[in-house]
Specification:
With about 290 residues, the chain is an alpha+beta fold. It has 8 helices and 8 strands.
Length: about 290
């Protein structure tokens, strides 16, 4: 049985599966799904794939529906466009697998874990709340690359750290699992329950399997998001530099004075510096074209 992998309408590779014995064998639909999931994760290194397979093996033998879910995750993640959409998919699937009261996804950026997605709406802290690696249970999981499951009184754990912005701090049960890519942590996913909840070994392993599956996708989405932001910053800097040059030429200001003038207008008008700079450049272009219009 073979699984084609295409990109931009071109065939990139074919992943095949063979029975152990030299005899005819009808492959079940679950085999096709496993092959598809494996193909989508070939960007991972072999140790990570081996760990992923170990996590998957007991799930396959216990309950085929779990593989159906993982297959669905792989399909949907590959159709997700943006960074936050990928994280939202992760939250949705993890919450569906382990019915929980809270699900949070932290992404490792430098030496900090940034809260990037939440099952419960927290617009005031999402993209703002940050943890150092090693800080709290979440930071401990990122530092040691292993899950932590606490069935009750999670706040009494010596690694626990309170964040007054999050009502989830008062929840009883806590499951924290690392998200992995190429053998390193790229984030952490936390599941919490308001009441006592014993996390079964199967629940921990399937969330860990999801961690292996989505880690590469999250890292790719994060890098694309960072590159997009960098390109935006470079473009803004170019426009501001051009506007500074115009003010220096027309008003006889030095470079620092021109920058402060743009910054002051940005604050007074309550608009980004880029918009102020674009207005200065546009005005200069109109004045430069005026003689040609007369």
């Amino acid at each position: 049985m073979g699984q084609p992998h295409c990109a931009a309408a071109r065939l990139i590779r074919v992943l095949t599966m063979h029975p152990r014995e030299k005899r005819c064998e009808n492959f079940a639909p679950i085999h096709k799904k496993i092959l598809y999931v494996s193909d989508q994760n070939l960007e991972l290194d072999f140790p990570t794939l081996a760990s992923y397979r170990i996590a998957m093996d007991p799930l396959i033998s216990v309950e085929d529906s779990h593989v159906d879910v993982l297959h669905e995750i792989s399909v949907r993640l590959n159709t997700s466009d943006g960074f936050h959409e990928v994280l939202t998919r992760v939250v949705d699937f993890a919450s569906a697998l382990v019915h929980c009261d809270s699900c949070l996804v932290y992404v490792l950026e430098g030496d900090e874990l940034v809260l990037r997605a939440s099952k419960n709406p927290h617009p005031e802290v999402v993209d703002r709340l940050k943890l150092k690696v090693g800080e709290g249970i979440t930071g401990w999981v990122a530092e040691h690359s292993e899950p932590v499951a606490i069935p009750e009184k999670a706040a009494h754990d010596p690694r626990f750290q309170f964040f007054h912005e999050l009502p989830e701090d008062s929840y009883e049960a806590f499951l924290s699992v690392p998200l992995m890519c190429r053998g390193r942590v790229v984030g952490v996913i936390n599941l919490q329950h308001k009441q006592h909840h014993v996390y079964r070994r199967r629940e921990i392993r399937i969330i860990s399997a999801i961690g292996f599956l989505v880690g590469a996708e999250i890292e790719l989405a994060r890098l694309e998001h960072a590159n997009s932001n960098l390109a935006e910053q470079l473009q803004t800097r170019k426009i501001v530099e051009r506007a500074k040059g115009i003010l220096q030429r027309d008003l006889g200001l030095n470079e620092e004075q021109a920058y402060l003038a743009i910054q002051r207008q940005s604050r007074q008008k309550r608009k980004p510096m880029r918009e102020i700079a674009e207005a200065i450049v546009l005005s200069d272009e109109v004045r430069g074209n005026t003689p040609h219009l007369l």
